[in-house]
Amino acid sequence: MRSLLTKAGKSRSFISKLIFMRQLQWAQQNAQRWAFTLSNAGAYYFEDRSDVANLSDINWDAVQSRQWSGNGVSRSVKEGKQAEFLIERSFPWHLVERIGVHSQGIVSLVANGIQGAAHRPQIEIRRDWYY
Length: 131
Known about the structure:
Elements: H1 12-29, E1 34-37, E2 48-49, H2 60-64, H3 75-80, E3 85-87, E4 98-101, H4 104-114, E5 122-125
Parallel strand pairs: 4-5
Antiparallel strand pairs: 1-2, 1-3
């Protein structure tokens, strides 16, 4: 697993799990149905879970992978990278902590799009999120 460390010494995988748990906690506190998938929920076949005890079923190595397509990449990585967390009906905007974009031009577009909103998440150029 690619283990980039943050200043706090936490791995990206750990941070991903914390973000997921915050969203999950909100869903449970607000009686919202939720599930997570082990691959793309839009595929003809996928496995889903709705029990926190099954979080270890997610291929966290694949989720954090930067190389997930092309020759030589296993099917488990290609599919595991597409794991999703789903909340029925709607997702609360206030839980969006930051928005990662590829370029300054897109920063401007996003900033204009959320101008005047009560909640304005941080917008960051995150080229490392794109591959």
